Queue: 4 jobs
Job 1
Amino acid sequence: MSTLNSFEIYSFTTLNQIHKDYIYKIWNNEYPVNLAFKDLQEVDNYLNNLIHAKHFFVVNEHNQLQGWAVIFERDYEKWFAIIIESTLHHLGLGRKFLNRLKTFSTELNGWVIDHQNDIKANGEPYHSPLAFYLKNDFVQISETRLELNKISAVKINWRE
C-alpha cells in the first residue's frame, strides 16, 4: 500500500501525449459520466482553451500517474480543477495536492458538484467533494452556481 510520502507532484506548462491520454482516462473514470470527454480531440479542445494553464501530476513510487490538476485564468480570476484516482482517496493525498496548488496563487476558484445525483462511468455514484474543500479552507459561494444540462455546481473560493 502506498503512503503519502511515496507520491511526488510534478508541474508542467506543456503536455505530451502521455499526459493528455491520462487526463482523458482519469477525467472519464472519476467525474460524472455526463461530463465525459467523447474522444481525445475533446480533451485537446478543453486544454487548449485554458488560459495560462499550469498542470500538475501526482506520480507514485512506480512512476505511475495517479492524479492531475490544473490552475488557469478565467475572467481575471485563478481557477483550478483537480482529480485524484478514487482508490487513493482518504490518504491525505488530496490535501497535499491542494496545498501544492495554493503555493502558486493567492486565490483559487472552482466549480464543485454539491449533490449526490450523478453517476460515474463505472455505475458508482459520484460523491460530492464539497466537504473536502470546506475542510481545506475554501468557502462556498452559494449565490454563484453553474447550472447546465450536464452539470449543477456551486462556486468555491480560497484566499490566502
Note: The domain at 7-159 is CATH 3.40.630.30 (Aminopeptidase).
Job 2
Amino acid sequence: MKVKSRHVQIMDTTLRDGEQTQGVSFTPDEKVEIVKALVGALHVDRIEVASARVSNSEKEGLIQINQWAREHGYADRIEILGFVDHKSSVDWIIESGGRVINLLTKGSCKHCNVQLGKTLEEHVVDIKQTLDYAFANNLKVNVYLEDWSNGYADSPDYVFELMDALQDSGISHFMLPDTLGVMSPDEVYDSIKDMVSRYPQVQFDFHPHNDYGLAVANAMAAVKAGVSSIHCTINCLGERTGNASLAEVEVVLRDKMNMHTSIDETNIVRVSNMVENFSGKWVSANAPIVGADVFTQTAGIHADGDQKAGLYKTRLSPERFARKRSYALGKMSGKASLSKNLEELGLSLSDENQAKVLARVRKLGHSKQQITLHDLPFIISDVMESNNYEHIKLLDCAINSSLNLDSTVSILVEIEGKKHRAAGSGNGGFDAFIDAISKAVQAYNYQLPSLIDFEVRIPKGGHANALTECIINWNTGDKPITTRGVHVNQVFAAISATIRLINIQLHTRD
C-alpha cells in the first residue's frame, strides 16, 4: 500500500536521550552550540534538551538555551523531560525558562505496578495532578508512555485505559517509545496502526531504540502506520545501542517514503562532526551519510563505471550533503581510479607514466590500506625521478630500535647481481642503515657522501598513516645531489632516497 506524502516532524533528543550514552556529558556551552546547530542550521522541528531536576549546572545551561531560543523565535521547539511529581518538575522547567514539558508516564502495567507500586487508577490521578499544574502555568505538555512497546504486547488493556483517561486532557503529543528496542517493523506497524485507528484525533510520536539494529526500519514502519513525529539523535547516540540516526531517518523518509521534512541536508555532516567532537564518541567510517568513507569508491571497476556513465551513483550523492566523492587509491585501483584523482589535482600524465604511478600505488597498497589524494603528488614525484637502472637493490631490511640503546640494522642487498648481507648500528634507524650500507658497498670502492640537508614531509591533513616523503641533499664534492624517497615509514623513505643516490653515483661512475 502506497503511503500518502505528508510532512513528518523530526524531534531530536541528542541532548537528553543521547546524553544517556555511556561516557557522554555535554557542558552547558556545548549544549547551547548544539541547539543552535540543530535549530538554526539543521532546522529540526523540536529538540528535547534535558531531564528536569538533574542539577543546578544543568538548569543554568537550560536558562542559556531557553533565552537564546526566545530571542530567535524557537521557544516552543525546546522540550524538557519531566516526571509525574506534581509541582517539582514543572517548577524546575519554569525556572529554567522552558515552555514545553515531556511528561514521563508509565506505558506498561508492569512498570506501573512494580516500579511505582501503584494501580493504573492511582497513576492516572497523579498524572492529571501534574498536568493541571503544568497547564495552570501555561506549559505545553507532551506525554511519554514509557515501555509502551512491552505494555502494548503484554497488557494492551492497560495502554488503552491510560489513553482513554488522558486523550481529552489537552496533551499535544502522545509519544510511544520502544524503550528497550525490542520491536520489529511488523510489530511497530501493527501496534501503531491500531493506536491510530483507536485514537484518530491524537498526534502520536514514535521513539525507537536500536537494540536489534532496527531503529530506522521501525521508524519507517511507524510513519507508514500514521505517526506524526519520529524521535532521532545525531550519530545514533542514546541509551545502550542508541536511538535512530537522524541522518538515516531523514534520507529514508524522503527517498523511500516520499515524505517531507524540515531538515536541511547540507548541514547534516557539519552537525554530526560537532556532536562527534563534543561527545567524544567517534563515528564509524562506514556510518551511512556521515561516515568518512561512505562516498569513497575503492574498487577500480566502480571508478571506471562512474567515469564512463555514472553507473555507480545513487540518489545519495555526496553533493546532496555538502560532501565530495573520492576514489580510493590502493591495491585494487585501476586506471579510472587514478585518472579521477589526477583530474581532481589538475594533473595530466602520459600513459607510460600513469602506468608507472599505478604500479607504485598498487605496491604501496599492500603495505597501506589506502593512499589518499594528497599522497599522490609524492608518489608521482618519486616515480618521475626513478631511473631504469638498478645497480643496487635493497632486498630486505630489519630495524631494531629501543629507548636507551643504539638502533641496529640488518640488510640484504643485491649489488651488480651479487647478494650481500651487512649489519650496522647507530643513533636511530637511519643512522644504523647508513653504517650497514657503507659496509656493503665498501668492496665496490664506493663511499657514501655526507648529508647537507634532510627533510621529512607528509601530505596536508596530518594523518598518522599518511605516506612520508624524505628529501635528502647530499654533499658529493662537486655539485650537490638531491634524492627523494616515498614510503609509509619515514625511515624507509630515507633509506629509499639513499638507495637512489647510490644507484645514480654507481651509474655515472660506470
Note: Residues 296-385 form one domain.
Job 3
Amino acid sequence: MKTMKSKLAVALMAAGLSFGAAAADITVGYAADPVSLDPHEQLSGGTLQMSHMVFDPLVRFTQTMDFEPRLAESWERVDNETMRFTLRKGVKFHSGNAFTADDVVWTFSRLKSSPDFKGIFGPLVSLTKVDDYTVEVKTDGTYPLIENVATYIFPMDSKFYSGKTAAGEDKAALVKHGNSYASTNVSGTGPFTIKSREQGVKVEFERFGNYWDTASKGNVDNLTLVPIKEDATRVAALLSGDVDMIAPVAPNDYKRIKKAKSVDLYTMPGTRIITFQMNQNSNEALKDVRVRQAIVYAVNNEGITKKIMKGAATAAAQQSPVGYAGYNEDLKPRYDLKKAKALMKEAGYADGFTLSMMAPNNRL
C-alpha cells in the first residue's frame, strides 16, 4: 500500500467578496455534488460537505486535529468499552422539533444499516439512551477511536423522518441511488437550510435563523453551491466572475490563480490520504509479500508530491495523518528502486507482470 497526504486549497475573488461584518450572498464552485439530501446514502466529499452545512456532528475536528464539542457538549469514558456523551440542550431542528437523545439513537441505528457507513460503525455495538440528554456508546472490546467515529454522527430529526408519506412509503427508508423521502426532504440542526436544489446544477442554502451556535461568526445569509467537476472549468468560472469562490484548486492551476488580479489563494493542511490498495485475491503475484513490498519501494512518493502535486501534498508512509490516533512519526516513505527490482527477481517476476487498476479521475 502506498500513501500520500493531500492539502486543501481554495481560491476566492478578493475584490468582489468581503468577509467583513456585513452579511453576504456568495456562490461557490465545488468539485462534488451531493447525490442526495440523505446524509447516509453515500459516503462522499459532496455528502459530507452538505452534512456540515445542514446538520451538525456530535463531535468535529479542529484545524489542529483536536476534538471539538458540537451537539455533544462533553464526553467521558465509563470503562474500556463504554463512552458517555452529554448532549447539548436547547437545540432546534429546522422543523422546529427539539433535539434529544432519541434523535441520536435513531440516527445511530440508521447508520448501522447504511451500506456506505456501516463499516465505520462496525466496532460500535450499541448506542443507548440514558436520559433525554445523555447517551452511551458500547464497543466490541477496547476501541480507542470512538471520538473519530462520532465525527460521522450527524443526528437527524427522528420525528420529521418518521411515519409514512402520502404515497404510503416509509419516510425513514434509506434508498441507495433511488428516490426516497430523505433524499428530497431535510431537517437538520445546522447553520443552513436548503432553499432549493437542482441535482447537478446547484444547491441554494439559506441561513437558519434559529441556529443554536450564536457565537458563530459566520456572516453569509445565502450560499449557492455549484458543482463544477472539471478543474479548469472551475478556475475559469472564478476568473470570469461566475462564482465567488472555488474549492479545491488543482495544483496545476496554482500559478494561474496566483497571477490573476483580485484573487486570493488559500492553502491549508489536509487529512485526505491517497492510497494505492492491492487486492491479493485478484492476482496471483500480489499474494507474494515480496511483490507487494517491491511495489512500495518502486513508487517515489516524494517525487510525486514535488512533480505532480507541485508541493500541494506531503509524502505519507501510513494511513494516519499527523494528529490522528495511531500516527507514528518513525515511519518514513520507502523509495528504493534497486531493492524493488531485487525483490521482484527473488519472487520470480524479474520481467514484471500485468495488473488491472481502478482509479477515479480528477482526484489529485
Note: The radius of gyration is 23 Å.
Job 4
Amino acid sequence: MNALPASDLPTVAVVYGLGSAGPAAVLRAARALCEIVFVCDTAVPGVAPLLPGIRRQARVCEISGMDIREAAEVLRAERPDAVVTFSEFCLGVTAQLAEILGLPGHRPETVRLLTDKTAQRAALAAAGVDDTSTLEASSAAGVLAAVELLGHPVVVKPRVGAGSRDTLRLDGTEQHGRLAEIMSDGDERVFVVEKYLPGDPSAAGERWGDYVSVEAVVVRGEVRTICVTGKFALADPLRETGLFLPSTLSSGAERDVAALAAAAVRALGVRTGVTHTEVKLTPDGPRVIEVNGRVGGRAADLLRRAHGVDLLATACELALGRDVEPAPSPSGAVVFEYFIVPPRLVGELRSIDGADAVRAMPGVREVDVVAAPGQPVDWRFPAQRLGFVRGEVKNHDSLHGLIMELNKKFHLEYAVQ
C-alpha cells in the first residue's frame, strides 16, 4: 500500500481488472467527488503490467495472493466508504468485498446471475421476461447434440466470459467444423448453445445493427433508464464495430426496449449500480441478449460526449449509496465511436495506413490507432480493436456516409497463419 495526502472526500475502492476503465479516466471522473484507492491483484489478467503506473497516479491496495477475507481486512485499513468495479471479471470479488465490509453493492447471488449465462437465462425465463432456448455443452460433440435439439441457426459462447470472446454463430451443418476454432481438446470450459434470434432490419434501419444497448442506473431496486445506444452492424461472426447516440429507433420502440431491459434487470435482483443491457431487435419485438452489471464497454465516453453524463462518476456515487438521477442534456448531433476491427482471420498485421486521411474528414474529431505492424490479430478476441474513430455529425445519414468513406481510406494488410 502507498499513501497520498488525505482529504475530506469519501473514499471509493475500485477493484481493477481486465476491461476496466483506465486509471486516468477513473481519477478524472472522481475529481471533487471522492478519493480513489485501486484494489489490485497481479493474478488478474491485465493488472501486473499496469500496476507501477497506477501506483504513480493513485493510492493502491494490493491483494495479490490473498484469500477474500485477508483481502477485505487489508482493504478495511484504507477505510473505504464504497467499493466498485468497472471490470466484468472483478464483479465477483467486488461483491464479496462489499458484503464482508458491509458496503453497498451487488449481492454475490446477483453477480452469479449477471455473469453465468445459463443462470441468467433461467432467471429471465422464470420471471417471464425472456425465454430464449438454451442448452449447455462441454465438448464439440455436446454442442452438435444441442444443435440437433435446437435446430439451426444457433449461437455458441462460453458460459462465463465477456466481450463476445470465442462466440460463434452456426447456420448449418457445413459450419460445424468451425467449432474447432473456439473449442480445443482439453478445454474445460462449459459452453452455452442458444437459439439464434433473427434480426428485424426495419427496426433500426437496414444500414445499422439489429441490436441496441440500454444504459441505466439502479437505485434501491428502481431502474432508471439513461439512454438507448445505437449500434453499427456486426462484423463476422458476432463482433461489435461501434456505437452511437442517439439510436435510430422511434420513441415508441425505445420505450419498449427500455421497459424490457428494466424488467430483465429487476428479474436478476439488481438493487444498485450501473447496468448495460444488450437487446436484439427481432420481428417479434425486442428480446434480451444479456444483462451486464457494470458500465458498458465504450459507453461511458460516448455518453459523456453526447449528453454530458459521466457514468464512471455515477457508478461511484451509487456505490456511496447516493440517490442518482442522471439528466442527459440534449446534444443536437449524432455522436459516435467506430471500431477498426480485423477481418475474420488469425495472423499478423502487416501495415495500417490512412489514419491522417480519416482525421481530415469533416465530422471526425479523433483517430486513435492502437495497433502496430507485427501485432498478432485473432478474430476470436472480439475486444481486439486496431483503432477507434470518434466524432459527431448532424444526422444519421451523414454518419452512414462518413463510415462508408472512412472504410475506403483505411488500408490494412495482414499475413494469415
Note: The first helix runs from residue 23 to 30.
